[in-house]
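Posting for a labmate who doesn't have an account.
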Amino acid sequence: MKRPNAQNESQDEKVQNRLFKLGEIMKEKREKMRREIQENIANEYSFTPEINETSKHLALKYENAPIHERVINLLLIVDSIQNL
């Protein structure tokens, strides 16, 4: 059985590294193409969200308080109404 010498091992490593780098480059190109396709699809839609007046009023009423604070306030209001 013939034993590989250092030169053959070095060439094998070069081939492996070259193929690995080529694979990484191709992977990056595929990911870039996917992102571009998704961006193009998203750009086809002209929808722009608008906040209706009720939502604006509620946001001003609660001064953009975090939801956990708003829920507590709502529960206190409901509780006080039930106790009447």
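Reply:
Got it, the structure tokens are right above this. The mean pLDDT is 83.
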